[in-house]
Each structure stands twice: as C-alpha cells, then as structure tokens.
C-alpha cells in the first residue's frame, strides 16, 4: 500500500483507460460509474457536470475509490482509495477538452449540453494498490 | 431505473466483461476492484475468497454497487446498485470453475491457493441503469 501512483503504472494515464469511480450515496451505499481521468503528478483528476449524482455525492462526502484497468490487460490495474481534495469549476472546461482529446481524439468535448456546468475534481490518493 | 437487467444488456454477461465492484469499508468509504461475474436470471453472482477485504466488507455491509462495461464499447455499460442477498460456500468451487471457463477458457480455476475457501455472493439488483 502506498499513497502515490507507482511510476510503473503511470502509463495507464496515457492510455484510454477509464476510472471506475465509486462515490457514496446519501444512505451510505456506493455508486459506481466509468469516468475519464488523468493524473497531474499529485492528484487523479476527473470531470463531471454540476448536479449529477456523483457531483452531489462528492460534495457531500469526499470519500471515493476508483479502479483503473489496463485496456490491454484486464489483469493489470490500479485500485485507489482516496478523498476529493478540491472541487472547482475553474479550468474544468479546458480539462474536459483535454480529456476529449485523449479519449476521443477531438479538440473539444463534443457532448456538452446547453447550460451544463463542468466541474473538475482532484482526488488525493490515500491507498494505492496495484495488480499485475 | 429498473431493478432487473434489461434483456438488451444481458449479452454483457456472455462476454468477458468485468464487474467493477464497490463495497463499503468499516469507515464508510468505498473500495473498488474488478471481479468476474455472471447472471443467473435473478442475481448477479460474483466469487471471492474468504478473508479478503471485499469478503469482510460484504459480510459487514451488504450494500454494493457494480458497473459492467462492454469490452467492445466502453460507452455501453450497466451501472447497478444493490445488496448482497446471499453469501455461501456451497457451489462456490463449481462457480469459480465456471467463471474460469468463461474468462480464461480453462476447465478449472487455476489460481486457487492452498487452504483458500471460495465464496459465492449473490447480488440482488435494486437500481439498474444502462448507458449506450
């Protein structure tokens, strides 16, 4: 167990690997959805839109977990437990465009809806385990 | 939202699709790991070994969530919230062999460790959402 992402697994953030993100519902039960992600050297960063279930959950309870599987080998993955250290709209539009470039090869995020407010969440890894 | 797996997504259980399973730690935070899975028509079934973190978590707190992504299209997935309705060692060895057949093409699960006790968990879906 470590609180940093091992160098030998950082390639996962260069690939189109999804983070399977768990957040906590108001009743204490978990919710899991796939999200795009990147890593800034300190935080795992994900992006969502204001008002979604996972947005509400992370604002209420910063405890999250995520698992990132190597798309080239499902038996190689990172499992991370951590907490949302920062939630911000600042830079969130640029960040979703950057993720769209990585995952879709598009210069701009094509799925924005009218009035949608993008939100950037920075996740501090507390316990990182790796497999494979 | 439904509490059954839509017919149109049951093909996911025929594929080598992993369930990204979230369980709840003693402190209320989530944990996520990939697991093999199948569906018996009522329950999503997963298999682990006695004494593992997720085994402890599911015995303490039956609230779980899982997400199953189509290996052929990451934008098509099922997200399920539910609860562990049954935990049993009965049939667990046969079940892990069946999963090894599905995921590895092997007649028997090749990774068993001496003294390992396999456990079968039957998850009742409470809320099922599908995407893609």
Could you describe the 3D structure shown?
The structure is a homodimer of 132-residue chains. With 132 residues, chain A is an alpha+beta fold. The first copy, chain A, has one domain: Electron Transport, Fmn-binding Protein, Chain A (Pnp Oxidase, Chain A), CATH 2.30.110.10. Chain A has two helices and seven strands. In chain A, strand 1 and strand 2 form a beta hairpin. Chain A is globular and about 40 Å long. In chain A, 36% of the residues are buried. The mean pLDDT of chain A is 97. Chains A and B meet through strand 1, strand 2, strand 5 and strand 6 of A and strand 1, strand 2, strand 5 and strand 6 of B.
Condensed summary:
The structure is a homodimer of 132-residue chains. The first copy, chain A, is an alpha+beta fold and 132 residues long. Chain A is built from 2 helices and 7 strands.
